[in-house]
Amino acid sequence: MDWLDSVKWDAQGLVPVIAQEASSGDVLMFAWMNREALARTAEAGRAVYFSRSRGRLWHKGEESGHVQTVHEIRLDCDNDVVLLKVTQQGHEPGIACHTGRHSCFFQRLENGRWQPVEPVLKDPESIYR
């Protein structure tokens, strides 16, 4: 059996993916993959996701240069969520978020409001042209 057949794909043929920084354990981002994206990620050792808004594959860092080198690919106990252990390339610490932050999870609930608690490391206007 093909290892991709073990993944429980949703009705759209997608699986949710969490990217976690291998060195720190920081959760960097959440995205989606289809079968081709997961296969390419495993083959190349670099993260490839499926963009639902664009309806196509996107190689992490294709515009920004903030590539994710993949060290491990894990599947959860229900076979319906993928975890990538990555090294985030580009800028130190690596920028994973399109807002120019290290992690997409930069907002924390404080007193009933979402507050940004991580700095912008690089202005997104200078990353995406």
CA distance, first residue to last residue: 43 Å
Global geometry: globular
Beta content: 35-45%
Largest sheet, spatial ordering of strands: 2-1-6-5
Low-confidence stretches: none
- Largest beta-sheet details: 4 strands, mixed
Cα-atom Rg, whole angstroms?
15 Å
Helical content (DSSP H or I, runs of 4+): 10-25%
Average pLDDT confidence is 91
Derived from helix and strand composition plus strand pairing, the structural class reads mainly beta
Tally of DSSP helical segments: 2
Total strand segments: 8
- N to C succession of SSEs: EEHEEEEEEH
Structure explained in plain terms:
With 129 residues, this protein is mainly beta. The chain is built from 2 helices and 8 strands. The protein has helices at residues 35-44, 124-127; strands spanning 14-21, 27-34, 48-51, 56-59, 68-75, 82-88, 107-110, 113-116. Strands 2-1-6-5 form a 4-stranded mixed sheet, covered by helices on one side. Strands 3-4 form a two-stranded antiparallel sheet. It has a two-stranded antiparallel sheet with strand order 7-8. The radius of gyration is 15 Å and the shape is globular. The protein starts with 13 loop residues before the first strand and ends with a helix. The mean pLDDT is 91.
